[in-house]
Amino acid sequence: MNQQRICHIIVAAGSGSRFGARLPKQYCLLGNRPVLMETIDRMRRYGGDGAEIVLVISADMRHLWDDMCEQHKFVTPTIVYGGATRWESVRNAIATTAAQSADVITVHDGARPIITRQLMDRVMAVDGDGCIPVVEVTDSLRRILPDGRSEAADRSVMRAVQTPQAFRGDMLRHAYTLPYSPAFTDDASVMEAAGHNALRLVDGDPCNIKITRPGDIEIALMHMR
Ligand code: C5P
Q1: 78 CA to centre of own chain
Q2: Which of 4, 25, 76, 215 could be disulfide-bonded to 16 (CB atoms 3.0-4.6 Å)?
Q3: Residue 54 to residues 76, 80, 89, 225, Cα–Cα distance (Å)
Q4: ω before 164 within 30° of 0 (cis)?
Q5: Whose CA is nearest to atom 21 of ligand 1?
Q6: Domain limits at 123?
Q7: Cα(3) to centroid of ligand 1, in Å?
Q8: C-alpha of residue 147 to centroid of ligand 1, in Å
Q9: What's the pLDDT tens digit per position in 119-166?
Q10: Is 206 a member of any domain?
Q11: Per residue in 20-50, pLDDT tens?
Q12: pTM for the whole structure
């Protein structure tokens, strides 16, 4: 049987405005090297033999990333430049040869460095149109109404969605030929809008945090120990 061709897209072209630092969060130090290097290394380790990685960064950050790679003796994966939205960044990566020829494509946020083997194995067992990792919501939830009031929402029927998300390559490529919607916050939402909605939910990992606010670096370091 032919081995499946796998392409992992790591999106890291965001500006990270909520992080409040001079640099976008994915370039900040996690221990002694940038967050993004931890993410890429773990994807290389747990993403499957022969898998290709496409890294999406902002063109403005290219010099900085090249300098960091030299300083840390880090070999960068194939680089693609991002766009104004996450959707555009993924679409640019899908145009690469690696993604065009892949049977399975995963998309992962560069700002989530705590990928584990167990999580990758769960997500990569793609059946149906794709697999997405989710976790239960622990906070109580409220829905904001159009008139500004709010009401309690039932958290037992809600899940928080993480990355990496894995999809059948042909379906993700098709989904990204359709027009953009501001409702696309991840790739599962793009797939669904294209009618590819047989998405299996698998257990995510509460440790798989997206570094978003300054204190998150400390939390990620704790999860790495
Ligand atoms: O903004 P948010 O935290 O949801 O971004 C999720 C991921 O998408 C981050 O890793 C970020 O770098 C990436 N992104 C991107 N291009 C954009 C916006 C976000 O690659 N234009």
Answers
A1: 16
A2: 25
A3: 9, 7, 11, 27
A4: yes
A5: 85
A6: 6-224
A7: 31
A8: 31
A9: 999 999 977 899 999 999 999 999 999 999 999 999 999 999 999 999
A10: yes
A11: 667 899 999 999 999 999 999 999 999 999 9
A12: 0.95
- Provide the pairing of β-strand 52-57 with 150-153: unpaired
130 within ligand 1 shell (Cβ under 6 A): no
Cβ contacts of residue 92 below 8 Å, gap of 6+?
56, 80, 81, 82, 83
Q: How many domains does the chain have?
A: 1
- The verdict on residue 107 lying in a domain is yes
How is residue 73 annotated by DSSP?
A: T
Q: Closest residue (by CA) to atom 11 of ligand 1?
A: 14
For the Cβ of 14 lying below 6 angstroms from any atom of ligand 1, the answer is yes
Is residue 110 within 6 Å of ligand 1 at its C-beta?
A: yes
Considering the domain boundaries, does residue 150 fall inside one?
A: yes
Is 1 part of any domain?
A: no
The CATH number given to whatever domain includes residue 132 is 3.90.550.10
Minimum CA distance residue for ligand 1 atom 6? 109
Convert the pLDDT of each residue in 173-198 to its tens digit. 999 999 999 999 999 999 999 999 99
